[in-house]
Amino acid sequence: MHRRSTIPALLAGGVILAMTVTACSGSSSEDPAVVSGGTFVQAISADPGDLNPMQAIDFSTFEVINMAYEALIYIDPEGELQPWLAESWESTGSEVTFTLKDGITCADGSPFTAETAAANIAYNVDAENATFYYGSQVTDGMTAAADGNTLTVTSATNNPFLVENIGTILMVCDKGLADIPSLSDSTDGTGLFPLTASEPGTTYSFTKRADYTWGPGDVSSDTEGLPDDVELRVLSDESTMANLLLSKEVNAAVITGPERSRLDGSGLEYTGVRNPVGEIMFNERSDRPTSDPLVREALVTALDRDEVGPVIAGGEALPSQSLVVRNPLLCVPDEPSWTLPDTSLERAGELLDEAGWTLGSDGLRSKDGQPLSVKFIYDAPTATHAPAAELVSETWQELGVTVELSANDGAAWSEQLYSTYDWDSGWVQVAPGGPAVLSLFFAGATPDQGGLNFGWVDNPEYNALVAEAAQASPEDACGLYLEAEAELINRFDIFPLADNILPTYYNGATFDQPNFIMPTTIRMVG
């Protein structure tokens, strides 16, 4: 069974299963009493950088902008599509019509209309704007028209997931659309909590609106239990986060390292989403050794997944099921569509020999007088990345590979992936909600052309299957996308070593987290 959604009128036909897990540690049998007001404080591990929602790709950026911007539809933790800015929708394979709710306003009090929504679609459809949504959720030839409170989006070709693709685009208000640069350090959306102050690298503050009435499930500004303010603090040290969680100075934080045992022992609970923490990606530029598929195959064949997996996953490794891991979980199979190679250091050496990298008397491999040197990058704030990278380095050194480990902060990720291209492999994860978004990172333009294909992947079989799937019927699209996904694994463009559940611990508040914390679901508890 493939998890996907086909939406005739208002009903979700098909199955979308959200991989959201709640672990109950010492939980009460009774729901805690909610208390309105106060400040909800969430720790985030990295600064979000540019806040433009149409350019956002980083996890930390989405955590911030998710507070202030909204979409036409909301996908809840169970994968069900719910009304949000739109109260209803009707769709065919090439056209969707959304009916917007009455009385929606932006944070500055100006109206949000169907014309505003149409302008958002038009901006994203323009290739020159190079938005995150272009090429995946919106495509060339799409048009958007407003008539009263209805928005009609027409695709030039059949689009198997038109409702989800258009319905989940974060909407910007008219003022922001007229001044795109202003969105880099401020917000202009319809959200319950607009950004009111920020200290980049330190704190992002949001204040509840008094005129909000259109939230999913009829949430309004007067809903009991909502905080008056939301504060997102940039904290990279998990010990600090854990201490603040236990004292209720912080209400929510992702904790992946050894501090988890202390939080579990104190009775704190967590919720989480599936996380491709063990994804290994490669730089396939022609000047890098990992441009050779034999080298890529050798490097991953050498790795013992049973040894490295538990380390990178914090002791809770899960076999990867799909490269799609976030809501709405389009085209996620019950079993993976690929087969990973058996671990064999001997076979890995043979592959490097075949690729021309010969082992010298010094125990190091070289070709044409150049050593086989691999720069492996990983995320500095993630507690499990460094020890797992050390294991990878030790294994590859046994093969005669010279390994340079490089710990990245937010600035370094941007520089290496999109500017200098100075990396070969690493713990590099993408976490899309559907295969069309996934294709941006593997079939799209390379960074020198303004695209997101930072691995410089050119996989003809994958590209052809993605192009075919994008125009297929909903019944056929998932099968083609799964074939495409397998091609990425078969060519070792990406290697899903292990997944885990990314746990968000909470104290003094509850919330839903379909992908990121949903602001309208935050409830303060006494």
Summarize this structure as a short list of keywords or feature phrases:
526 residues; 14 helices; alpha+beta; 25% helix; Dipeptide-binding Protein, domain 3; D-Maltodextrin-Binding Protein, domain 2; five-stranded mixed beta sheet; four-stranded antiparallel beta sheet; 2 domains
Structural features, described:
The protein has 526 residues and is α+β, with helices and mostly antiparallel strands. The chain has two domains: 2-273 and 502-524, 3-Layer(aba) Sandwich (D-Maltodextrin-Binding Protein, domain 2); 279-498, Roll (Dipeptide-binding Protein, domain 3), CATH 3.10.105. It is 25% helix and 21% strand. The chain has 14 helices and 26 strands. The strands form eight sheets. A five-stranded mixed β-sheet has the order 21-20-22-15-23. β17 (358-359) and β18 (365-367) form a beta hairpin. The protein is globular, with a radius of gyration of 23 Å. The model is unreliable at 1-29 (pLDDT under 50).
